[in-house]
Amino acid sequence: MGKHSKVQKGSDAEEQITAVPMYRNPIAKPMADSKKSKKCLKLITDAAGERCICRGIKEVGKAIRKHQGEGLMVLAGDVFPVDVIAHLPVLCKENDIPYTFIESKYALGEAATTRRPTSVILVKKPTKDKAELYKSFKKCVAALEEKDE
């Protein structure tokens, strides 16, 4: 899903497709910038390899309600309708779980090594070898929350 734009190289005009999100939720705040999104997607890929993620609205909500969801939540910013994920940031604030939004549910699903787009992923507290990566990303999310408020 993208938007067409014309780019000229020399004398030939070529058509290039750029990835521009077609829709962004009005509740998608704090939105991660491209650098922090890449760090987030790398963390999700590493956590998926160790089987320490929950994905999907139902599974993530259940983990948070049962207090098994200690970690970091990443939500997609292009989920429609908004009502599907609107309750998750509130649950995160109640349980002191840091969260952030990224641009695309397709990128989120790909990072979680699934074939389907995923609207939300909860990265559970990683094992000792991934603790440094978790701490650095948690600091980035804290900086995003401070900047947004």
TrEMBL record:
Pfam families: Ribosomal_L7Ae. One of its GO terms (cellular component) is ribosome. GO terms for biological process: mRNA splicing, via spliceosome; ribosome biogenesis; snRNA pseudouridine synthesis. InterPro entries: eL8/uL1-like, H/ACA_rnp_Nhp2-like, Ribosomal_eL30-like_sf, Ribosomal_eL8-like_CS, Ribosomal_eL8/eL30/eS12/Gad45, Ribosomal_eL8/Nhp2. Keywords: Nucleus, Ribonucleoprotein, Ribosomal protein, RNA-binding. It comes from the Eukaryota. PROSITE patterns: RIBOSOMAL_L7AE. Required for ribosome biogenesis. Part of a complex which catalyzes pseudouridylation of rRNA. This involves the isomerization of uridine such that the ribose is subsequently attached to C5, instead of the normal N1. Pseudouridine ('psi') residues may serve to stabilize the conformation of rRNAs. Common component of the spliceosome and rRNA processing machinery. Belongs to the eukaryotic ribosomal protein eL8 family. This is H/ACA ribonucleoprotein complex subunit 2.
